[in-house]
Write a structure and sequence with these properties.
The chain is of the alpha+beta class. The chain has helices at residues 2-13, 62-73, 97-104, 126-132, 134-137, 172-179, and strands at 29-31, 37-39, 47-53, 79-85, 112-113, 150-153, 159-163, 198-200, 209-214, 219-226, 232-241, 245-250, 257-265, 268-276. 18% of the residues lie in helices and 29% in strands.
């Protein structure tokens, strides 16, 4: 039991910024395409899609869908896109910053564009060294092999996903993640949403089960577990509650990790971050 508790504590702490030996997205600086120095710490609290762009690539039309996603989610979901022009792949971005700006006007680009950089060259930009190397990001080696490779950065500055050129910006794997709960939501034991009449009475982290108390007869109730990417992992409950009831959901088959518990009842939707640690 002692060793199990120690493992749980170590696992739980490892998810919080400041406890890692690795750098964070917010530790970096870069220059915008207009020549302004920018600290990525300015993006704390926002989800970020980082993409390397090119003007003469088969994937260049993705500029349009990138702008579409930005328009849809920028304001309501604290979402940003940062584009890094790069000429390393097929020499498909040969222009200067000024000609790239002019080209982007064809797509009405309003998200942040950066100064043209190197990604796989000797002078690779520091942020792209971090994105691609496990010894820097603490997550994995994710080499960029072509234009319009997409990286996902959460609100705390952690690298949480990446997708190759073929994955469209409007793919649900990206848009679901954008709409997923913030990782900066407080992690607390006890109530998931007392206002909605749903209370989780398990401890957080949870090791073997999640126990919910549902109040309010005749209430349409849903309880779901989502991954950090916003995808549904398990549907715990979906139905009409005709009495005060207790729902016991085993989590033994879930991998250890961070999840979101999303509840909805009485017209109130709530989410909170939970850790499963076996």
């Amino acid at each position: 039991m002692f060793m199990k508790n120690i493992f749980t504590l170590i696992f739980f702490m490892s998810w919080f910024p400041g406890n890692s030996q690795f750098q964070n997205f917010h530790d970096f600086n870069a220059q915008t395409i207009l020549g302004n120095d920018t600290s990525f710490s300015e993006f704390y609290g926002k989800k970020i899609l980082v993409v390397n762009t090119a003007s003469f690539c088969e994937y260049t039309p993705q500029y349009a869908s990138l702008e579409q996603v930005y328009d849809l989610y920028h304001d309501d979901y604290n979402f940003e896109i940062i584009g890094f022009p790069c000429n390393n792949f097929g020499n498909q971005e040969p222009g200067t910053d000024s000609t790239i700006i002019e080209f982007c006007q064809n797509y009405g680009i309003s998200f942040t564009m950066m100064h043209r950089i190197g990604i796989i060259t000797q002078d690779t930009a520091p942020i792209y060294k971090w994105l691609q190397r496990a010894n820097l990001n603490g997550v994995g080696n994710f080499p960029v092999t072509w234009n319009f490779h997409k990286f996902l950065i959460d609100e705390a500055g952690n690298l949480v996903g990446h997708y190759p050129s073929q994955v469209q910006p409007v793919d649900t794997v990206i848009t679901n993640w954008i709409q997923s709960p913030s990782v900066l939501l407080p992690t607390a034991a006890g109530s998931v949403s007392r206002a909605s009449g749903i209370t989780c009475i398990s401890s957080n982290p949870a090791s073997d089960q999640l126990l919910f108390r549902v109040d309010g007869p005749g209430t349409k109730t849903t309880i779901s577990i989502l991954g950090l990417d916003g995808r549904l992992v398990r549907q715990v409950y979906n139905g009409i509650t005709d009495k005060v009831m207790t729902i016991n959901f085993p989590v033994n088959d879930l991998q250890s990790g961070v999840y979101f518990i999303v509840t909805e009842a009485n017209g109130i939707r709530n989410s909170s971050k939970w850790v499963i640690a076996h």
